[in-house]
Write a structure and sequence with these properties.
There is one protein chain. With 201 residues, the chain is mainly α. It has one domain (6-200): Rna Polymerase Sigma Factor, Chain: A (Orthogonal Bundle). It has ten helices and no strands. It has helices at residues 6-10, 15-19, 25-45, 50-67, 79-101, 105-118, 121-145, 150-159, 164-171, 175-200. The longest helix has 26 residues, at 175-200.
Length: 201
């Protein structure tokens, strides 16, 4: 079975190095494809209006396009931390701009106080970390799913909340077969998560 693997990801320039040149359109599309859902997840979790989310997303991409070429990726421990900081700052700017438009100083001050209270640094960092792991796991599962049967996928998904013996009984399958199918997907998923995490920075 041929799947994405760590070797596959590491035999090419990392995505981040490729987009630093600002002339690799394919790399930039790859970047937006890989990070789009992650960025939107953070935006949505921070209660941005749906009507403003797309505009904010474009502003975030523009800032990244301008800033990434100047990053020292060799010294950067985790790109996702930098990405999350950019997203967080853009969201903060969005709220500040929205309140300024109301031209109500008292309302603006109240909003700033509630914003800081609701989005404390530890809470934001926890949100960012959670969304990152969700994002990578979802993409990894999407990558490997095409290599397994629908039944194997069903077994794996059900095993997250059901006992294996109950699944085997319900599907009239040997317990050993259900375990084998579940474990094959689990092993592939863990390898894909590790490879994808390395690739995305």
């Amino acid at each position: 079975m041929s799947t994405y693997s760590q070797d596959f990801y590491l035999t090419r320039y990392t995505l981040l190095h490729r987009i630093q040149s600002q002339v690799d359109d394919i790399a930039w599309k790859d970047f937006t494809d890989q990070y789009r859902l992650y960025i939107y997840a953070i935006i949505n979790r921070m209660n941005i209006k749906t009507t403003d989310a797309d505009d904010l997303y474009q502003k975030i991409l523009l800032k990244l396009w301008k800033k990434v070429p100047d990053l020292d990726l060799e010294k950067m421990e985790r790109f996702r931390s930098y990405l999350a900081t950019v997203v967080r700052n853009c969201v903060h700017d969005y709220f500040r701009s929205a309140m300024r438009k109301k031209k109500n100083q008292d309302s603006f001050i109240d909003h700033e106080a509630s914003y800081g209270k609701h989005y404390s640094l530890p809470a934001i960092e926890e949100l960012i970390e959670t969304e990152w792991h969700n994002h990578v796991a979802a993409k990894a599962f999407e990558n490997i799913s095409i290599y397994f049967s629908d039944q194997a996928i069903e077994i794996f998904k059900r095993s997250l909340s059901e006992e294996i013996k109950d699944i085997a009984c319900d599907l009239a399958m040997p317990l050993s077969t259900v375990y084998r199918l579940r474990n094959r997907i689990k092993d592939s998923l863990l390898k894909e998560i590790a490879a994808l995490s390395e690739y995305l920075g």
